[in-house]
Amino acid sequence: MSLRQKLLLLFSLTVAAAVAAVAWTVLVRIRQVFEQRDQEETALFVNQFQREFQHRSADVVAAIDRLAASEHMRAAAFAIAQSGDTSPYLTEAQAMAQDAQLDFLEIVGPDGKVVSSAQWPARFGYPEPAAVRAGQAAFLKSEDLPDGTTALGLFAVRTVRGAEPAVTLVGGERLDAAFLSDLPVAPGMTVALYSDPSAANGASATLFDAQHLVGTAGAVTGASRYQPLIDAARKSGQQTSAILYLTDRREESVNATAIPLKNDSGALPAVLIVSLSRGGMVEAQQHIRAIAYGVASGGILLAIVLSLWIAARVSRPIEELARAAEAVAEGDWETHVPERGRDEVSVLARSFNHMTGQLAAQREQLVQTERVAAWRELARRLAHELKNPLFPLQLTVENLARARALPEAEFEEVFRESTATLGAEIANLKTIIGRFSDFSKMPKPQLERVDAKDAIERVRALYEPTASKEAGAIHFAMDMADEPMPMYADPELLHRALSNLVLNAMDAMPEGGVLTLSAHSHSGQIEMRVADTGEGLTPEECERLFTPYYTTKQHGTGLGLAIVQSVVTDHGGTIAVESREGGGAAFILTLPRVQE
Amino acid sequence: MRWTVLRRCVISCALLMLVLPAAARTRPHYGGTLRVEIAGDPWQRPDGLARRLVFDGLTAIGTDGAVKPALAVEWSADDDDHRWQFRLRPGVHFQDGTPLTSVNAAAALNAACPSNCPWTAVRAVGSAVVFVGDAPMPALPALLADDAFRLALTINAEGKTPEGSVGTGPFQVAGFNNSVLTLTANENCWQGRPFVDSVELRVHRAVRDQWLDLSVGRADMVEVSAEMTRQAQQQRLNVIAQPDATLLALQVNDSGPLANPILRTALAEAIDRSALANVIFQKQGEPVAGLLPQRVSGYAFLFPVERDLNRAHELRGGLSLPPLTMSAESGDAAMQLAAQRIALDLHEAGFTVQMVAGNELRTNLTLRRFMLEGGAPGAMLETVLRAANEQPAVIGDGPADLYQAEHEALERHTLIPLLDLPRAYAVGARVRDLRLNADGEPDIANASLEDAP
C-alpha cells in the first residue's frame, strides 16, 4: 500500500468515524426527545380520554335517572306495584331504551324479576340480581344476550320514585365498537376494548382471546400484538404503557396505554386500550435520519476528496523524492526534485538535490581520477610493453654498429642475426600495437540466434587438442544441460570472449589441471561458466580484474577481460568471477535466454 | 192532568223516533265498498282472506260448527267409509260463466291437493264427485270444508286455463293495483249476491297502520293479533274475536338430535306455557297441552299444561346435545318473542337452542300456528295433523276414539301444543252484521255497510 493510500485511508477513517459519532449522538438525542414528547402527549390524551370515559359513565347514570323520574315510568311503576300485572309492560323497556339511546334497559318488578327487557325481551320473569344495586355509581356488568353471547356494559340502577314496593330500572350502554366510536379521539389515536365478560361476574380471568378485542371498526387487526400489554394490565390491575409494533415496520407502531376497567367488586372485566400512532414521530425521525445520513455521507465524501488532495499534496514531494532516489539508484545522477515551500519535505528535497549534486561532482572527480589512472596505467603498460622489445632492438642496433668493425663474413653473420632480431622485435611491437588497436575498435554486435552449447563446443574444439598435448596437459571437462539454450548473440564476439576466458584459464594452469566448461539455463537466463583449477585470485585482484590494462600476468596487456566485459555488456548480460586463493577461479557469463 | 198527558205523548213520540231508526238498522243495505286491510297475503293459507271470498268448498262449517252443504248438496258413504260420493249442486257457475261440473270439480280438487290427501283418488262419476280411500274416511265431509279444498277453476268451458283466480264464491277478482286487491260482488253466486258491491283488500299493511286507517275512517275492517287484542280494547276499538281459532304449537323434527322421544318429552315439559299466554300474548291465549280446544273435544283438561322443569332435567338425563335450531313460522314480533322465550325455557332445562331465520323444515324446532278448521273434532284433528305433515290415524266417531287418536299423536311429541289463540278483527262503525265463523274467518258475504245507498 502506497503512502498516499495509507494517508487517504487514515484521513477517511478518521473523518468517517468522527461524522458517524456525531450523527449517532444527534440521532440518539433526537430519538430520546421525540419519545419523551410522544409519551407526554400520550399521557395527556389518555387523561383526557379517561375523563371522557367518566363523563360517559355519568351520562348513563343521568339517563337512567331521567327515565326513573319520568311521569310515564312512574305511572307504570305505580300500576305494576298496585296491580301486580306486568304483562302490559312487556315491550316498554324497548321503547324507553330507544328513546334514551341506551343499549340495555330492564324494568325490574318489586319481586326482583324482569318485567321488560330491551336487550332480551323474552327474559321477562327472570330475576335480575343487579336490581339491588340501586343508587350506586355506574359499574361494569356482563349481560347475556339472546344469541348466546355475552356483552359488557356500563350500567346504572335506579329506583322509580313514588312506587311502593319499588320498581327499578337497570340500564346501560354497551361497551362495543359503537361505544368506542362515539368517544372523541385525537388524530392518530385509536381506542380498543378488551372485554372478558366472565370476569365481570366474579369468575377468574380467562386467557387472552384476540376475538374479545374490538376497536371502533370491529375486530382489531393484529390483536395478538396487544396481548403482552393487556396481560400486564390485567395482572397488575394498574395502568400500563408500552410501545407496540403492529407490524415489522417501525412507523406502524403505537404508544399504547392499557387502562384496566374495574367493577365495584374489584374484578377486572375489561381493559381499555388507548393507542397513539407513532407513525408521524417515526416518519419525522426517519426524515431527520435521512437528512443526517445525507449530510454525513456528503461530509464523508467531501472528506475523502479532501483526503485525496491532502494525501496527494503531502505525498507528492515524497513520491518525487522516491522516484528521484530510484533514478539515482539506476545511475541517473542528474536527477533533481522540485523544492516547494519551506517545510521539512522541502528541506529534504533540497538536501536530496544537494546530495545528488555532490554525488555527481564526486563521480566526475572519480571519473577524472580513474581516467588519469587509466592513462597512467596505459602509459605504464605501453612503456612496459614497448620497453621490452626496444631493449633488444637497442642491443641489436649497438651490436650491428660494433659489427662494422668485424670482418665481412662475421659482419654478414651478425647482420643476419641482427636483422632477424630486429624483425622479430618489430613484429612484437606490431602485435602489441594491434591489441591496443583492437580494443579501441570493438565492433557493434551482429545478433543472431545462437545456442550456448554450440558456442562452448566451438571453443572446446579449438583449444582442447592443443592444450592436451602440451607438457602441462589440461583436461577439458564439459557440464552441459540437455535442453537447448538459445540466445541472441554475435557468434564471433561471443567466441572471442569465451576464447579469452579459456586462454586465461589455460594461462592460470601452467602445470596442467582441469578446465571446466558448463552451460545451464534458469530463470530466463543462460549461465555459461569457465572454471580452472589454478591458483585462484585474491579479493583485491577480483575487484580490479575487469579494469582495462590491469593484468596479473607477466606479459599480458590487461585487455582480455576488459574485452570480455565489453562483449557481455553489449549483449545485455553480466560477468562475474568466483575465486578463492589456491582454489581456482570461475568466470560466469549470464546472458538473456530467448523467450519462446 | 193535561200537561201530564201531553208530557206522556211527547215522551212516547220521542221514544218512537228513537225506535224507528233502530228498526231500520235491522234491514241490511246492498251496496258500498268494504275496505279491509290485512298484514299477510290474501291468497296464502292459512290467513288467505281472498280464498274464502272467491272460492267455495263442497261442504262448509256453519257458525254452530256443524258441517253443512255448499257446492255439494248431499253425500253418502259406502264400503265402510272407503268410498264417498258427493252430488253437486245443480246450476252453479264459476264467475267466468263456466258451469260447475263433476269433471272440473274433480280437477280442482286434484289441483288443490296434489299429495298427502285424505283420499286416494277423486274422480267424476256422472254429476257426482267420488272419493276413494285406502283407509276409511269418516270425517271426509268435514275435511272438505277446509280452506285447502276450495275449488278453483282449472279449465274453463273453452278448454283453456283461466286468467287469474276464478271460483264460485260471493266475490270475484276485479283487479290488483297499488297493493289493493279489488273484489266485486258475484251477482250470480249460488248463495245469493253479497250485500256489499265490492271489497277492497289492502294487503301487506302493517298492523299499526291498519289501526290508524281504521281510526281515521280509511278502513272498515283491520286485523287484531292476539297479543294486541287487549290493547285494541283499551283503545276502544270495536273488536270481534273468535276464541280458540288458532293453535300455537312447537313442531319437533324427530330426526337428528331429537330422534329420541324421551328428549322430545323433556322439551314439552320444559316450556312455560303460562308465561307465553300471560305476558307475550297478553292473557289472550289459553295454555293447552292438547291439539283440540276444550270446547271442541271436552277432554283437553286431561292433558297437563304446567311446566315441570325437574322432570325435564330427569328426562334429559344429563345428556349433552348439540345446539338445537329453532325458527318461527311467522316473522311477526310475537312469534319471534315466543320462540325466544321457548329457547330460554329450554336453555333452563339444559338444551342449547339457536334461533335461525331459515327453512322451517331444516330446523329442529319450529314454532307454528295451525288453523283450527273442520268443525267436527275428528276433522279438526286430522286437519291439524295433516298441516303438520303427519299421517293421521283413522279417527272413529266416538269421544273415546278421538281421545285415543289425539293421545297417540301427542305421545309422539312431534307436535307440542302450547296455546289456543283467538282470531280477532276490529271493525269500523259503518260495518253491520259482520260475524266470525267457527274458525275465526270473517263472514264478509253476509256483512253490509251502514251508509250504503
Keywords:
heterodimer, A: 596 residues, alpha+beta, 5-stranded antiparallel β-sheet, B: 453 residues, 11-stranded mixed β-sheet, 13 helices, 29% helix, 23% strand, globular
Report on the structure:
- Chain A is α+β, with helices and mostly antiparallel strands.
- Helices cover 51% and strands 19% of the residues of chain A.
- Chain A has 13 helices and 18 strands.
- Chain A has helices at 3-69, 71-83, 92-100, 177-182, 197-200, 227-236, 279-329, 344-403, 408-440, 452-469, 491-508, 539-544, 560-570, and strands spanning 104-108, 114-117, 139-144, 150-159, 168-174, 189-195, 213-215, 218-219, 240-245, 253-261, 270-277, 448-451, 474-480, 486-489, 513-522, 525-531, 574-579, 585-592.
- In chain A, strands 8-7-6-11-10-9 form a six-stranded antiparallel β-sheet, with helices on both faces.
- In chain A, α7 runs parallel beside α8, α8 runs antiparallel to α9 and α11 (491-508) packs antiparallel against α13.
- The longest helix of chain B is centred in the N-terminal third of the chain and has 24 residues, at 2-25.
- Chain B has 13 helices and 19 strands.
- Chain B is globular, with a radius of gyration of 25 Å.
- The model of chain B has no long low-confidence stretch (mean pLDDT 87).
- Chain B has helices at 2-25, 49-54, 102-112, 140-143, 207-215, 229-234, 261-270, 273-280, 294-297, 309-316, 333-348, 377-387, 399-411; strands at residues 33-37, 59-61, 67-69, 72-78, 83-88, 121-125, 128-132, 171-177, 180-185, 198-202, 221-224, 238-252, 286-287, 324-328, 353-355, 365-371, 415-427, 431-432, 448-449.
- In chain B, the strands form four sheets. In chain B, strands 1, 8, 9, 10, 11, 12, 13, 14, 15, 16 and 17 form an eleven-stranded mixed β-sheet that branches. A four-stranded antiparallel β-sheet of chain B has the order 4-5-7-6, covered by helices on one side. In chain B, strands 2-3 form a two-stranded antiparallel ribbon.
- In chain B, α7 runs antiparallel to α10 (309-316).
- Chain B is α+β, with helices and mostly antiparallel strands.
